[in-house]
## 1
Amino acid sequence: MLVLVCLLLMILWLNFRVNELEKSSKAMGYSFQSLLDKIVKLRKRAERIEDEVNIPRPEENIGAGWDS
């Protein structure tokens, strides 16, 4: 029961944050969807550039450092 209440509160909080983002993006002259589209385009562009330049991906073993 407590888990359901927590999930409901989290959903309500996320809904509030999305509404605030929509209001602020409209105040700046952008629609929320256009901002999301720009973020997706930039992410795809960054991935394409990483592939072209062959930037190595982070290794799974984060604990391996200078002293290993």
Note: DSSP finds two helices and no strands in the chain.
## 2
Amino acid sequence: MDHHALSRLLLRIAGVVVIVATLTAVPKSIVTLVVAAGQEANASPLITAIIASLVPLMIGMAMVWLPGTVANRLVDSTSTGNSQVDAAASLQAVALSVIGFYFFASSLFDAVFWVARLKLYSAVMETSEAFAGAPAVMPDDFAGMVATGVQALAGVLLLLGSKGVGRLLVKARGHA
């Protein structure tokens, strides 16, 4: 199996993981948003959950059906006589990019969830006088939002700088 085939396989597997993670998170998101909306009968929580699910689903499907585009950019096809060290570095860059893509895709799903939750929280705070002294954002929610932002940043850094991260790992291991 050459590097391109292995890269495409890794991307397809990562796409399946993104799709499965998204589909398993949808019921929890719907229930959380419906409970947060209260007894009002409207479609807003359902629409929010569907919109939040579309982005990672589309990314996952693109990874499953179009892995060659990303693999061609990550693996150099012009060099056929790579040494084993070069091959390992190339595959490590692909693996780090796949992990970065997964982090970024799942952070998009989480970001839409946090925006919807914050919107519902502020709507409840405005309509109820009982919560007049409550903070604008609960501490756990703030921590979750920061974690989502850090996950998105880590995903982008891994996605765009996978070769540099790979070189840092090689230096840290003392191989170069």
Note: The mean pLDDT is 77.
## 3
Amino acid sequence: MTSSLTTAPARPQSLRQTLRDFGRPPRIVGLDIARGIAVIGMIAAHTLETSAMFVWSDPETWTALANGRPSILFALLAGISIALMTGRTQVPERSQLGSIRLRLVARGVMIFAIGLVLELLGTNIAIILTFYGIVYVVAMLFVGLRVRTLVIWAAALAVAGPALQAGLVSVSPFGFGEGTTLMLHGTYSIFVWTSLMLAGLALGRLELTRAKVAAGALAIGVAMSSIGYSVGVLWGPGEEAGWSSSVSSASSSASSSAYAAPVTPGDEVDLSGLFCEDYGDGFVSCYPPEFFDEMPEDEPIESQQRLGGSWDDYIDMVQANAPLDMMSDALLASSPHSGGTMELFGSGGLALALVGLLLLVGRGLRHALLPIAAVGSMPLTAYTTHVVVIWIVGGPGGWIDDPAFFWWLTGAVLVGCTAWALLVGRGPLERLTAYVSRRVG
């Protein structure tokens, strides 16, 4: 005997119910809040003049927190997100790794493609998404590892990676190309990001809803940050080792080595005895007299550039780069975007402490901080939106440095993401990347 049961269609959830349920498990609202803070930090970095030095007692210097640190937080959160989408606390079985890796590559390619589109807009922003996509692809090599192994890899890359990168740069004075620019000379360092991603992946394999795990992340983060910034201030190469995240890779490529010479105001430079050429476009080149003694007198300076090099030139340039000094600076540098080990400890520890704190208090603050959590529930959409708005308002190649615009744009992103999260749910670009990932895997 059989019977037929008619099931009534599920009633759409009311706005009040959606609001009440927002941020409840299986979502971890503390992570959404952290992602939202990272996005807002990016907006600040791209629309405000950030201070060079952070001083607790001086609110005018608090904008320094937006210089470099949001991208560090993004990298750590990337690893946590990868852990959550690949089994959470369960390390994938060998039989599952193939499909998981395909999905990670697909998601990484989609994020990379969105980043390329944003780069084509021609803003002065160092677009984070292309590198973010690469991190997803790199992650496929590590998703099958256990927590202890991930921590070892993260620590090894954090300590040795920056020095190795500096060494490669110092012994490759002619080594400029698209690949080396992306991986070695760009605003974002593959060693820094991989280390942070692995740290996040290890953290994400733990039970993040347990207070003990969150408190441990907070304590370890505070200790790491204290060590990193203290060592960087006492023995590091100084603030000149980094650059602003508002500047694109193309704009900073000429000085993209994390350990380049410091920038000095023109009125503090002594040009006595030098011969200078004024190109009329704001650039001036100056040369010592002996430079001209080595050139034919009947040829202009720009025609004297040698078309080829020699081993003698190479050795001279490597010696001038002082590889050991560069590697030492890489180990001790803590300034934003320096890519140094102490930046990893300082800013990375700060990011870890923030995540730990928000894991502890996030659930209790999920309604008070709902707009920030809504932004964090769709970080790819929110980040892309803010870049497009800056492009529309500032124009291609434009630059916006306006506190009023920062507050306007931040408010618009908060309101827009909150409305979308409550009325629609998942962000549009998050839906797109998830769809492609599912189709591939």
Note: DSSP finds 18 helices and two strands in the chain.
